[in-house]
Amino acid sequence: MKKIIIGLLSVAVLISCDNGAKKRAEALSHEKDSLLQVISDKDMELDDIMGVVSEVQDGFRRINEAEGRIIVSDGDVESVSTIQIVRENMQYIEDVMKQNRDMIASLQEKLKKSRIAGEKTKKMVEDLTAQLEARNMRIQELEAQLAEKNIIISRQGDSILVLNENMDLLTAENAAQRQTIKDQVAELNAAWYVFGTKAELKEQKILEDGDVLRSGSFNQDYFTKIDIRYDKEIKLYSKSAKILTNHPSGSYKLTKDNKGQYILQVTNPEKFWTTSKYLVIQVK
């Protein structure tokens, strides 16, 4: 009996030892899993932070490239297309700056909640924040330069506007001068003719006591004005015609149409009108 009891106690002790070892093993395994999870979480958090840092740095790189495409030189006259390119790059820089600003703010929030962020990580974010502020000041300088450039362009635009107005005025003056010259030339080439019966010519004081255009009181409105450069033929609608004013022979001829009515043809206008710019023809 005594041997049986000792055997049972031995078995119980062995079972108890096995259970304790098993529990300790399970505890160690659980602790190991927890540590692995913590390490995994830290790795993910660190990857996330470094990913954002990399994006911010890439943003600064793109800003630098965009700045390189902006040319703002004092006194230079920029074309409309160049100004448009500058403005587009400035807008691009502002957009990237906003993205960087938002990402840095996100990093700062992450650091507040992070359990793994060390001094190096915090210093990295502080440096990025400092870069952002410096870049922001640089952008303000560029904006000021661009604004000044726009003012210069605006002033040049005003000058161009005044120049255009002066050109318009000059064009108008030239047109007026051309018209004046044209009128003067037309006046130089103007002549007046009249044909009528003897009674009609006397009535208009064109013919007085047998003399033609004796006084200046004749009715000039009774005459027809012509341009001697173009008007070289006058139909008289009469079978009888006599030229009363003096015109060089050989510079004209009187012909008849198919009805037997006279037509005056000026064959040499320059010669015909040299003695008088008034032509008086008596018809019946």
Overview of this protein structure:
The protein has helices at 2-68, 80-113, 119-188, 198-203, 269-272; strands spanning 190-196, 207-208, 211-212, 224-227, 233-235, 241-243, 252-256, 262-266, 278-283. The chain contains 5 helices and 9 strands. Helix 1 (2-68) packs antiparallel against helix 2 and helix 1 (2-68) runs parallel beside helix 3. The longest helix has 70 residues, at 119-188. The strands form 3 sheets. Strands 4-1-9-6 form a 4-stranded mixed beta sheet. The chain folds into 2 domains: 21-155, Methane Monooxygenase Hydroxylase, Chain G, domain 1 (Up-down Bundle), CATH 1.20.58; 189-283, no CATH class. The chain is an alpha+beta fold and 284 residues long. Strand 2 and strand 3 (211-212) form a beta hairpin. It is 64% helix and 13% strand.
Q: What is the CA-CA span between the terminal residues?
A: 184 Å
> Helix proportion of residues, in percent?
55-70%
Note the beta-strand portion. Answer: 5-15%
What low-confidence regions span 5 or more consecutive residues with pLDDT below 50? none
H-E order: HHHEHEEEEEEEHE
CATH topology group of the largest domain: Methane Monooxygenase Hydroxylase, Chain G, domain 1
Per CATH, the architecture of the largest domain is: Up-down Bundle
